[in-house]
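Q: I'm building a small set of examples for a reading group on sequence design. Run inverse folding on the following structure and report the sequence directly after it, with nothing in between.
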């Protein structure tokens, strides 16, 4: 079994509603996406190794990605009662995080070298991040989001032939793993 086949098998076992192979040329690291982080609406900019600028420059990301040949986009889709259904939104975000961590654990257990890009949140592994005074405590578990990496998630999905939006009343969280 190839690594990508194994990855797909794991994604199915874990229960992601949707997944598909990422097209490496769809991974475009864009300064405009980084600018949205720099606006600091989430108040995490410059406060973690997984957020800009601590997660590295766009050029460094592009260099890192060259070490990988393929990967998978994995998605959790939840249904919302209405556009104010924040409970379902939060549950979906947690579910996606748990699933993506489970996928990462499987890859680490198999000693498969991987690059993990999560879904839109700053790392919460430690009560207080060591950034910028000391190295990250858990580099294997700390994942920058796709957005923090400078990726436009909907464009990456579209460029890879995967939907980003599954219709009215749904919300989808997307993560990416390269191997
Ligand atoms: S694992 Fe800890 S030290 Fe590393 S980025 Fe996350 S919060 Fe910071």
């Amino acid at each position: 079994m190839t690594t990508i086949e194994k990855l797909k098998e794991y994604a199915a076992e874990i229960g992601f509603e949707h997944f598909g192979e990422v097209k490496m040329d769809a991974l475009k690291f864009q300064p405009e996406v980084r600018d949205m982080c720099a606006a600091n609406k989430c108040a995490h900019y410059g406060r973690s190794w997984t957020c800009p600028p601590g997660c590295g420059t766009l050029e460094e990301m592009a260099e890192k990605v060259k070490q990988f040949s393929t990967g998978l986009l994995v998605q959790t889709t939840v249904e919302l009662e209405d556009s104010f259904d924040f409970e379902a939104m939060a549950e979906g975000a947690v579910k996606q995080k748990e699933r993506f961590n489970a996928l990462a654990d499987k890859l680490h257990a198999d000693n498969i070298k991987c690059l993990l890009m999560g879904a839109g949140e700053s790392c919460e592994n430690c009560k207080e991040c060591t950034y910028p005074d000391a190295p990250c405590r858990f580099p294997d578990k700390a994942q920058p989001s796709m957005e923090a990496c400078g990726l436009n998630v909907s464009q990456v999905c579209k460029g890879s032939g995967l939907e980003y939006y599954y219709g009215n009343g749904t919300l989808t969280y997307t993560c990416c793993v390269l191997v």
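Strands lie at 18-21, 71-79, 115-117, 170-178.
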